[in-house]
Every structure is written in C-alpha cells, then in structure tokens.
Hints:
- The complex is a heterodimer.
- By secondary structure, chain A is mainly α.
- Chain A folds into 2 domains: 15-143 and 241-263, no CATH class; 152-224, no CATH class.
- In chain A, 68% of the residues lie in helices and 3% in strands.
- Chain A contains 10 helices and 2 strands; from the N terminus they run αααααββααααα.
- A two-stranded antiparallel ribbon of chain A has the order 1-2.
- In chain A, a hairpin with a 2-residue loop joins strand 1 (92-96) and strand 2 (99-102).
- In chain A, helix 8 packs across helix 9.
- Chain A starts with 14 loop residues before the first helix and ends with a helix.
- Chain B is of the alpha/beta class.
- Chain B folds into 2 domains: 2-239, P-loop containing nucleotide triphosphate hydrolases (Rossmann fold); 240-277, no CATH class.
- Chain B is built from 11 helices and 10 strands.
- A 6-stranded mixed sheet of chain B has the order 6-7-8-3-9-10, sandwiched between helices.
- Chain B is globular.
- The mean pLDDT of chain B is 88.
- At the A-B interface, helix 8 and helix 9 of A face helix 2, strand 6, helix 3 and helix 4 of B.
Amino acid sequence: MGKVLLGRYVPGDSIVHRMDPRAKLILSFFFIVIIFLANNWQSYALLFALTIGSILAAKVNFAFFIKGVRPLIWLILFTVLLQIFFSSGGTVFWRWGPFNLSYYGLINGAYVFCRFVLIIFMSTLLTLTTAPLEIADALEKLMMPLKKIKVPVYEISLMLSIALRFVPTLMDETAKIMNAQRSRGVNFGEGSIMQQIKAVVPLLVPLFVSSFNRAEDLATAMEARGYRGGEGRTKYRVHYWQTGDTVGCAVFVAVLIILLFLRHW
Amino acid sequence: MDIVEIKNLTFKYPQQEVQNFNNFNLKIKKGEWLAIIGHNGSGKSTLVRLIDGLLAPESGEITVSGIKLTPESVWDVRSKIGMVFQNPDNQFVGANVEDDVAFGLENAAIPRKEMLIRVRQALERVKMWEFADHEPVRLSGGQKQRVALAGIIALKPEIIILDEATSMLDPEGRQAVLEIIRELNQVEHLTVISITHDIDEASNAQRVVVLDDGKIVQDDIPAKIFSHGASLVKIGLEPPFSEKLKEELVKQGIEVPDEYLTKEGMVDWLWQLFSKQ
C-alpha cells in the first residue's frame, strides 16, 4: 500500500538530482512544448537523443521509465489507432467505410506514439529525480508573480506540502481501518460492483471523520507554534540556482535551435 | 515570582450551557513544574488553551511572564510558551524532521543563518539530529514527540505546556520525553505545566493541582496527593483500561460483572457475551 506514492521519487546523487527543482520543472514544460515542433524523423531522433541523454545523466534504472508508460498504454494505442485509420494522404493500402490505412496515417501514428513516449519519459524523469516537496517548493517560487493578482501563493504551497506530508499517514490509517472492518466481516474487492461500492462506505466514513479531527488538531498546533499566515515568514529550505542549471537550460535551448533548423530540412 | 497568573477567570464553550470555569484563580511560579490532573472533562486542556490564548475567556485576567493576555498581545504571549499536544502525528507540520523544527522559527521570521544553528542545536539536544532528514512515517511516536520538543526548544520559550504529551507513547518513548523535560526544568529552569493521567509523570512535578469541574479541589506536593491511595481514580489518574470499558458498557445499558476484570478476563467475558446473542 505504502508503495503507491505520488511521484515515485528515487533518491540519488546525480547531476539531475542535484539540479534546482525550478530548473527541472521549467525544462520539463519547455520540453513538452517543443515536442510539438518536431515534424520529421530527424527532429524526433534529436528529441530522443536529448531524453536518453538526460536519463543517462540521472543514473536511474531504465525499468522505471517502462513502468511509467505501462499504465497509459491503452490510451496511447487508442490515440495511435485513431491517427492511423482516420488520417489520409499518400498511398492508400486498405479502405473500409470511413477507415483507411494510408502512408501518412502510418507515419502520423508513429509520430504520435513517439510524442507520448517522450512526454512520459521526461515527466517520469522529473518525478523520479525530484522529491514531491521540492516540486511544491518550485511551484511556489514559479507562482510568485501571481501574488500581484492576490493569489495566496504561500498558503497554496503550504497546503500542498502538508497534503504531501499526510499522504503516507492517511494510507497507514486506511490500511488500519480496512483491517478493522475486515475483522467485522466486510469484504473488500469481492462481489458485484454494487457490493464493492457499498464496502467502501465503512472505509470512507471513519477516514473522513479522522481526517477532520487531524485537521483541527493540526490547526491548533500550528497556531500554538506562531503560524499566522504566509506573510513575513522566513524560509528554512532554499534552493540555489547553480552552474549545472544554467548548463541544462543552455542544452535545451540549443536543442530548440537545432530543432527549428531540422524542421525545414 | 509568578510567571502565570490567572485572576477571576470565567469561561464557557459557545455551544454549552454550563460554565467551564467560574471565578477561577491560579498562580504558577517561575521555574516550577506543575502537574494538572483531573478526570476527562474537568477542564485541564481548556485551562492550558486559555493560558496560550487558543481560547478566549469571557472575563477575568490572564498574565503570562508580565504580559497581560489580550487579542493584541496574544502572539507575544505565545512566543513565551511552547506546547506539546497529545497526538504525535497531528502536530507534525514539516515534511521531515528538520523542516518541522524550523516551522516555528519560520513563523517567528528568524533569519535563515540563525535558523540552521538553532535547528541543529535543538535536534542534538533531543538526540534526533541523525534523523534530521527522516519523514514522520519513519519515526516512532516517542521520536515524533522529541521532534516536537526540539521545535519548542529552538524557539527558546519560558514555559513548556504538555497536554497529555506522553499518553500515546510506549514506556520507553515516555521515559525519553520525560528525561528531556526534567533536564529543561532543572538545568534551564523552564517552567513546566503538564497535564497528565500518568502517575510517574505527575510525581516528577513539584506541585500537583487536581481539577474537578473547573475548580481546584487539591493543590499540594505530589507525595501528599498520592498518599490518598484508592481515591486516585476519583481525582483522575488513569483507571485501568478494562474498568473504563466497563463503565462505557454500563452507559450503553449492558450488564457487566461487578468484580474487577483483568484485560484477559475482559476479553473472555466479552466474547462469551457476544456468542450468547
């Protein structure tokens, strides 16, 4: 149960692990955007080279990335099949009603597949090398400009970090309640769908009640420790932008420039 | 010198009819270890929450370390007091040990350089520095309470309030926490106010106050209080679990045997009762 964690962070000490989480977050978004600029084999090859290079630099077992693709495989296949059968152009190999299998359709399907894999690999790399809390920190820093339009940035990031902190606690509690209810004869994961839904009720009710109690206790404890809103607090955890981060950004920008060049090959 | 002075305190919870405190008076000396005991609902937790300004009195005056408690001064008063609550998990705010200790310092806007020093010192003090990067799930209850104490030590308060802080701990964890409190009280002369059901913890105190229904019924040194023997249960030191269960069953209208049952005896009796139905 405890293994189903958000982010599946794998601690390590590679260049990628040590990067500023802000840099990693920005670069991940940047990468997802530039994927859509790729339009031929050369450009996809370039992006694959970049992704594989990043993965190698992170020194994370490749099996994690395959695992990242697996839960989405049906979605990917569905989208790829749509592309293959509904786009037309080039030599038509086969036709039946609205479906047709064409040269362009096959090419497009392959491209879409590549896009999915690239996006999943890169975002898996982000969550594997960055602790959830670091991502929360990075979001806080990157959302800072929103303070001008009165978005409560500090509060949002505190909520996020408290939520992350309580995920394992609540999972433990869920396991305990499940055991307690099993000992009273509730069957989880058995019977018809209706029965299974009904079995969840005696799990959710105590979980909700205790979460509210926890929230109340936590609020009191925070107040007793002098918490009065996000304004005017100092920060214990800080991240420094290092040479590695600048180099990382430079590499991605260089890739973008080559990509723009390859588009018009 | 009195560090806490409560004069003519009156308080009731908004949704309740009865007064929790009516014309209540109490003085606590600087450097003293005061244990507050009393059965559930006697007003112990309410009292310490009033002292920390977490609840507002209807009337009366509370002075902490020379500062009169008002809505304006409440944050100054809280900076003098460190509170440890009952449930170790529900007061752990940070994502890991050092973050949690830093939480109070961040609130007090302590510069980061000093924060690093204070967090380390406080954690070394409670022997938790080697766990600095551990998440709360990887800690025992006693370790979490020690982290909570470190969070307080780092803020350098004058008073420590323990609101049944050891009641959810195993005996070892409880000893470790009490050891630290004893040191803080004796070496640093911090004032300690501890709410407890545990005889061991209360016997550490220099003074014991027994509360009943918002009134002080006894106020003496521990030895005198504990010489009352059998009536301990009446004044709120923990009766055995099986006795408490029996009491609750009676409230549900279930007939229970009169004689004292051990935990095992209680289990036997319970399943026999259950299979008869």
